[in-house]
Write a structure and sequence with these properties.
CATH class of the largest domain in chain C: Mainly Alpha
Largest sheet of chain C: none
Shape of chain B: elongated
Chains: A alpha/beta (326), B mainly alpha (285), C mainly alpha (315)
Shape of chain C: globular
Structural class of chain B: mainly alpha
Structural class of chain C: mainly alpha
CATH superfamily of the largest domain in chain C: MetI-like
Radius of gyration of chain B: 21 Å
Number of strands of chain B: 0
Strand content of chain B: under 5%
Helix content of chain B: over 70%
Largest sheet of chain B: none
Order of helices and strands of chain B: HHHHHHHHHHHH
Number of strands of chain C: 0
Number of helices of chain C: 13
Number of domains of chain C: 2
Oligomer: heterotrimer
Strand content of chain C: under 5%
CATH architecture of the largest domain in chain C: Orthogonal Bundle
Chain lengths: 326, 285, 315
């Protein structure tokens, strides 16, 4: 399979009143065509701003790219002009967000918001674009799509609004969909429906997906591979099956041990002692060391090596065992 | 009106400090006018009519040869007097009617409807109507403008008091058997202090502009009293011959209103966000 | 939408009625016999007696009010003591000036205030933004009549570009060119109000820019200008429109002064002159007319708001 998106050694720097702080440190992830990668981490671990960096939507006054590369279909996104990035955003990489209630423009009709996306990237007539918008609403299983085109966001439920967001995202048949906690704000039953919809559409359209979540139950449901982030750094990455069966990073193990059932959320977990260190404490060491049960002197002194647990499973830990990758 | 409140400001601390500084300077002018003014503000000198600014008369002289600087300094007295009077009436009446309305819902319905009706009159028009009934004069200017801003103040106090009343700790106080007056004095009034400070700054500022308008129209303070509005009104026909005459009193009105608005803006921005809504109306939240 | 309209009009009528009652009562609060007050100093005892009967002063206040109200509804606002003509005629004469002045002022406020506010928001924090914001804050504190007098000095007296006072009707000789008489007054009147709109536009643009749906729009890869216009500005406009009511109140107050400064034959100056002449029927009639117009325009602003914000219709 060809690599579609590759993020290498990405460094994101936040600019606060108290000076710059590293929010994402040397992150490397890759998504192949048609594959679904779950990016997992606690809030503040840097997963959402990574997504914004890929989209080119970083709030420039607050967060900037400090280094690294982001490649999409072999093109280096960070080297493109603003115009060239806009041709990719929405068109080939689309994104849906956490808050369906506030993510749609309240004074614009649903149809217009979908059409806006289509006509931003393709030269089609308004009529044709509207017809496509209706099809898209049908694709995301919204009943009476032709009528719904004329509705305003406040006339729809949260689940329906998220379906509309998905319809907008899929309007140009993107190669990659970034979904940033798309179900967190929804009721449990609606969550399951939206997840099922995303999974179906991803397979139907042979589209790659970068699914950001803090819910391990969701990961097993939707992803082929998983990347677990801790405090701006990658902890462990591999196929979902392997990572869940043989978690090698103490953080992952902690997370999985604490999953009483498949839908537990990280935020509720209390079993991992300690809390996230602030990102400004730039540690020349393993960032998880202060909370790690296995930590010894080396953990506090040297950054962890990348260890290949298997051909499809990597871990960033001094105590993981297995073969260190240079 | 609360137009200022709806426009969220910029800047902040430094500007508010500058505003306070200007207000302090004006207050000193008002307090020590007789000692600060170089000349008698009503002394006529036909020999130096309409003279431009000079070493003897920094701000020039008017058509009676009166020293403009001295008149401007003395004008700050009336400005302060009117401002304080208007704020006293607006806040005194506003607090009384606002709190009563919040505490007694039936009375509140009636009072707030009356406030609505009075707010159907644009500010200056209501003041003019009151002047028609009362006649012109310093006290009547104060009363008329005070009543105008009493309506807005009552509405803000009513809004804030209702909110406070519905909050849990007032319920708790009621449950513990506190009487109404005790709730008003212990729980509601203390929490009104900061929103009322904001309102007082805005009312003081608007009072300056409205009083100056009344003076300019010849319906405010009697013309023999040196107020900034009267000075502009009297000098307007000499504007081509002595344009400086209008400059200083106008600048003083603007400076006074500007500095009070700066302070009010900064104070509002520091208010509890839930209370800011009382100043914003429908536009925010 | 229809239900919203009915509710708004349902709130408008009682307020108008109550305001008219206040206007009716205030003439009676003036010391002296109301009939004598209404007829002025020169009135003969016979005329006063006749008016006493007409006003029904022997009857209860409620009856008097209803009698007055039915006259008003039929367009009878009484006669001017000074001009000896029906008050309504005077008001109708003044309306052209006042309405055109208000419209022209609104053109400046909207045409200048909105774009400048947008630019300040787009250049947030820059020296341009700081100076625009500072300037608008100061302008909002400057008395309109003072601005007006200096405009007259510069553009009429010194440069001689524009007339300094008066306004001949655009329907008479000169036609539309007569609008130049309203140029300086409308600029003086617009200055403080445009300043408020600048500040408000800037603040609400910045608020809206942080909204999630703006991020959604940016994620679509559409042109940044389109994001600003269709998404940010369109929503910021709601806040600005909802503040139009306040602006309007300030504008009417200041129009009274501005018409006096520029000797414009409008309703506002008529209020002031009638007060100075103690022409009570005219005072009463003009104030009633202004309040009616003010409430009606406020109603229109509310309807405009409902039209701009689809969420209102359901509430």
């Amino acid at each position: 399979m060809n690599t579609l998106l590759s993020v290498r050694d990405l460094e994101l720097v936040g600019h606060t009143a108290s000076g710059p702080r590293t929010l994402v440190d040397g992150l490397s992830i890759a998504v192949s065509e048609g594959e679904s990668l779950a990016l997992v981490g606690e809030s503040g671990s840097g997963k959402s701003i990574t997504a914004l960096a890929i989209m080119g939507l970083l709030p420039e006054a607050e967060v900037t790219v400090g280094g690294g590369r982001i490649e999409f279909s072999g093109e280096s996104l960070l080297d493109l002009s603003a115009l060239e990035r806009r041709r990719i955003a929405g068109n080939r990489i689309a994104m849906i967000f956490q808050e369906p209630m506030t993510s749609l423009n309240p004074v614009m009709r649903i149809g217009d918001q979908i059409v806006e996306m289509i006509r931003a990237h393709e030269r089609v007539s308004l009529r044709a674009a509207m017809a496509r918008a209706a099809e898209l609403l049908a694709d995301v299983r919204i009943p009476e799509p032709a009528m719904r085109l004329r509705a305003y966001p406040h006339q729809l439920s949260g689940g329906q609004r998220q379906r509309v967001m998905i319809a907008i995202a899929l309007a140009c048949r993107p190669k990659l969909l970034i979904a940033d906690e798309p179900t967190t704000a929804l009721d449990v039953t609606v969550q399951a429906q939206i997840l099922a919809l995303l999974r179906d559409l991803q397979q139907e359209l042979a589209m790659a997906m970068l699914f950001i979540t803090h819910d391990l139950g969701v990961v097993a449901n939707i992803a082929d591979r998983v990347a677990i982030m801790y405090c701006g750094q990658l902890a462990e990455t591999g196929s979902v099956k392997e990572v869940f069966r043989t978690p090698s990073h103490p953080y992952t193990r902690g997370l999985l041990h604490c999953v009483p059932n498949a839908s537990a959320e990280l935020d509720e977990l209390v079993a991992i002692p300690g809390q996230l260190p602030s990102a400004s404490e730039s540690l020349a060491a393993c960032r998880f060391a202060p909370r790690c049960p296995l930590a010894d002197t080396i953990c506090h002194r040297t950054p962890p090596p990348t260890v290949a647990v298997s051909a499809v499973h990597f871990c960033h830990c001094h105590h993981a065992g297995g073969v260190a990758v240079p | 009106m609360t137009t200022y409140a709806t426009a969220t400001g910029f800047g902040g601390q430094k500007l508010a400090f500058a505003g306070l500084l200007i207000i302090a300077t004006l207050a000193v002018c008002a307090l020590f006018a007789p000692w600060l003014a170089p000349a008698d503000p009503i002394a006529i000198d036909p020999l130096v009519r309409l003279s431009p600014p000079s070493a003897a008369h920094w701000f020039g002289t008017d058509h009676f040869g009166r020293d403009t600087l001295s008149r401007v300094i003395h004008g700050s007295r009336m400005a302060a007097f009117i401002g304080i009077g208007v704020v006293a009436i607006a806040l005194g009446g506003g607090i009384t009617f606002g709190v009563l309305s919040a505490v007694f819902p039936r009375l509140g319905m009636l009072l707030m409807r009356i406030v609505d009706v009075m707010m159907a009159f644009p500010a200056l028009l209501l003041a003019l109507a009151l002047i028609v009934v009362l006649g012109r004069g310093v006290e009547n200017s104060i009363l008329a403008i005070g009543v105008v801003y009493m309506t807005t103040t009552a509405r803000i106090v009513y809004g804030v008091s209702l909110r406070l009343k519905s909050e849990v700790w007032v319920d708790a106080a009621l449950a513990m058997g506190a009487r109404t007056p005790r709730i008003v004095f212990r729980h509601i009034l203390p929490n009104l202090v900061s929103p009322l400070f904001v309102q007082a700054s805005f009312v003081f500022a608007f009072a300056q502009l409205q009083a100056a308008s009344l003076d300019f129209l010849g319906l405010g303070v009697p013309p023999e009293t040196p107020t900034w509005g009267n000075m502009i009104s009297e000098s307007r026909i000499y504007i081509t011959r002595a344009p400086w005459l209008l400059l200083f009193p106008g600048l003083m009105i603007a400076l006074a209103a500007f500095s009070l608005n700066l302070v009010g803006d900064a104070a509002r921005d520091r208010l509890d966000p839930r209370l800011q809504a009382a100043f914003g109306g429908r536009s925010r939240s | 939408m229809l239900r919203y309209l009915i509710r708004r009009i349902g709130a408008f009528l009682p307020t108008l009625l109550a305001a008219s009652f206040l206007i009716f009562v205030f003439i009676r609060l003036i010391p002296g016999d109301p009939a004598a007050v209404m007829l002025g100093d020169q009135a003969t005892p016979e005329a006063i007696e006749a008016l006493r009967v007409e006003m029904g002063l022997e009857e209860s206040l409620a009856v008097q009010y209803l009698r007055w109200l039915s006259d008003v509804v039929r367009g009878d606002l009484g006669d001017s003591i000074f001009f000896q003509v029906p008050v309504l005629e005077l008001i109708v004469d003044g309306l052209e000036t006042s309405v055109l002045l208000a419209l022209m002022t609104m053109v400046w406020i909207v045409g200048f205030g909105l774009p400048v506010g947008m630019v300040a928001a787009a250049r947030r924090g820059s020296w341009l933004d700081q100076s625009l914001s500072g300037m608008s804050m100061f302008l909002a504190s400057v008395p309109t009549f003072w601005v007006g007098l200096y405009l007259i000095l510069i553009f009429a007296a010194i440069l001689g570009w524009l007339p300094s006072s008066g306004y001949p009707s655009i329907f008479g000789e000169g036609g539309l060119a007569n609008l130049r008489y309203l140029l300086l007054p409308s600029i003086a009147l617009a200055a403080p109000n445009a300043a408020l709109i600048i500040r408000l536009t800037r603040a609400s643009m910045l608020d809206v820019y942080r909204e999630d749906y703006v991020r959604t729009a940016r994620a679509k890869g559409i042109h940044p200008l389109r994001v600003i216009v269709r998404h940010v500005f369109r929503n910021a406009l709601l806040t600005v429109v909802s503040a139009f009511g306040f602006t309007l109140a300030a504008l009417i107050s200041e129009a009274v002064v501005t018409e006096t400064v520029f000797s414009l034959p409008g309703v506002g100056r008529m209020v002031v002159q009638s007060i100075l002449r103690r022409d009570y029927p005219v005072i009463q009639g003009t104030i009633l007319m202004i309040v009616l117009l003010y409430l009606a325009i406020n109603l229109a602003v509310d309807i405009l708001y409902a039209w701009l914000d689809p969420r209102v219709k359901l509430r």
